[in-house]
Amino acid sequence: xxxxxxxxxxxxxxxxxxxxxxxxxxxxxxxxxxxxxxxxxxxxxxxxxxxxxxxxxxxxxxxxxxxxxxxxxxxxxxxxxxxxxxxxxxxxxxxxxxxxxxxxxxxxxxxxxxxxxxxxxxxxxxxxxxxxxxxxxxxxxxxxxxxxxxxxxxxxxxxxxxxxxxxxxxxxxxxxxxxxxxxxxxxxxxxxxxxxxxxxxxxxxxxxxxxxxxxxxxxxxxxxxxxxxxxxxxxxxxxxxxxxxxxxxxxxxxxxxxxxxxxxxxxxxxxxxxxxxxxxxxxxxxxxxxxxxxxxxxxxxxxxxxxxxxxxxxxxxxxxxxxxxxxxxxxxxxxxxxxxxxxxxxxxxxxxxxxxxxxxxxxxxxxxxxxxxxxxxxxxxxxxxxxxxxxxxxxxxxxxxxxxxxxxxxxxxxxxxxxxxxxxxxxxxxxxxxxxxxxxxxxxxxxxxxxxxxxxxxxxxxxxxxxxxxxxxxxxxxxxxxxxxxxxxxxxxxxxxxxxxxxxxxxxxxxxxxxxxxxxxxxxxxxxxxxxxxxxxxxxxxxxxxxxxxxxxxxxxxxxxxxxxxxxxx
Length: 570
Ligand code: SRM
Ligand code: SF4
Fold this sequence. Notes:
By secondary structure, this protein is α+β, with helices and mostly antiparallel strands. The chain is built from 17 helices and 22 strands. It is globular.
C-alpha cells in the first residue's frame, strides 16, 4: 500500500467555489430572483446555482443579433433537465413531459446522451409550475446539472432484460442515494417550509462546497457498451455468470471534454481498477466521490474533472486511497468483452414473453416534423402502453416491456405514424449522434443537431456509391469541444470550431474502448465530403473481413491510435 501524502492543487479557488460557499446549500437568492418580473433572466451567481436544480438560463441565439440591434435584452429562456436514473420513464410520465413541452417549452422533447429528457425554451415565470408538475409525476430535476453526481445511466439493452431490470435498480439506488441532502430544491420549487434551526451536517458527503466539478456514473452490461462506460468519471461493468449478476468491474477517470488549443485538457478513458459485489457499489461510489471532493482542482475549472485528479495523482495512488477509505480491497477485475457502443433497432423479444421496440430518434429530438409526426405517434403509444419507455444513451427510445397482446396495437400505431426503427436509413445514420448546440447552447461554436442530418444526406450518397449502406460506422458531432455527444468515441467525429467549420477526428474503436485522433483541422463541408469520399472508398476496397472503420484507419496509417488521453494531442 502506497503511503503518499495527497494534495489538491494549490491556487485561488475559482469564483464558482465562492458562489457555492455563500449559497447556503444551493439556495442563493434563487427564490427571490425567480419572482422578479423586470427581467426574464437571473443574475450569474444564481444561474450557477440553478444548475444544481437541473436547469440553467439560456438565450435563443438565433435571435441574439436582432434583439441586440433593437436594444432588447436577450431572448432569455430556461433549459430544464430531468433526473431519470437508467433512462426509464413510465407512460404517464412520458405524457406529462409531452404536455409540459407543449404548455411551457418549445413543443419538443430532447432525449439526451445521458438517457433523460430536456425541455428547452421555458420562460422564467413558468419554471416553478413546470418543476411542480414534473414532481407530481414522481420525477424531479435535482442534481441533473451542477457540481454533484449526475443522472446515473445504465445499459438500455433490451436483449438481456432480466439483467437490465437488476442493473436498473442499482442505477436508481445510486442516483437516489448520492443526491444532495439540502432541502433547497424543495423550498424553492415545491414551497416546502424551511425548518427552523439547521441540522448539524447538511451534506455529509458533499460538504459545503459540493464537488469541484460535475461527476458522472454509468453502468454497462456487456457485450453492449451503449452507455460508453469508459467516458464516465466512474463506470461499472456488469459481470454476469450463469445468467446471474455477480458484481461489477470498476473503472475510474473517464471524460470527454477539452478546450481547443489547450493541451492541458483532453478526453480520457476510464481505466478498470478492480471488481466489487453489487452491495458494495454504493460504498465504492461514495468513496470515489469523496476522493474527488478532497483532491479535485477547485482553482482551475477546466482541469477540475476527476479524470485530471486521477492522472495527476496516478491510478495506483487513487486506487490505494479508495481501498483505504473503503477499509477493504477491490477484487481483481473479471474478464469482459464489449462489441459495440450503439443501439440495436426494431423489435426484440425479451424474458417472460415481453417485447421491446427500439426506435431511431435522429439527434434525440422528439417533435412533430412536417412529414413525420413523431411526437403525436409516441403520445398515442404512451396512452395505451403498459410497459415503460427507456431513453438510450444514443439519444434513441425503447418502447419496452410490451406484452404479446399489446404488441399488435402498438405496432399498428408505429406503422400509422411511420415511426422508424431506422432500418430504411444507412447504418451510418443510425449510428449517429449530435449534441444540441445552436440555437440554445451558449457554448456552441457551430451547429450540430440541426446540421448533422443534412450532412448525412450527402455522406449517404458516398456510402451508397461504395456499397457501405449496411456498415455501422459511428459518427458523432458536437458544436464545441465539450463533447456532449461523446465525439471522441465516434469512429468519425466532428467538433465545431466556428460557424460551418469543424475539426475532424478518426479512429475511435467501435466498442468505445479507444479514443479518436485529430485528422483535419477547421474544415468545411466541401472538404469533409472529399475526405470521406476517399476514406470510405478505401475502406470499401481495402478493409479486412469484419474490420471496423475505426480500426481500418489506424491499420492503414491514416491516423495514429490514441493509447491514452494524456497523449491525445501528440
Ligand atoms: Fe453536456 C455543458 C448539453 C451530455 C460534457 N452540456 C453542457 C451545456 C449545459 C452547456 C452549458 O454548460 O452552458 C449544454 C446544454 C445545451 C442545451 O441547449 O441543451 C449541454 N450535455 C448536453 C446534452 C443535452 C447533449 C445532448 O445533445 O444530449 C447532454 C445532456 C446529458 C444529461 O442528460 O445529463 C450532455 N455533456 C454531455 C456528455 C456526454 C455524457 O455525459 O455521457 C459530456 C461528455 C462527458 C463528460 O462529461 O466528460 C458532456 N457538457 C459537457 C461539458 C464539458 C465538461 C468537462 O468538464 O469536460 C460542458 C461544459 C461545462 O461543464 O463547463 C457541458
Ligand atoms: Fe453545447 Fe458544446 Fe455540449 Fe454541444 S458539446 S451541447 S455545443 S456544450
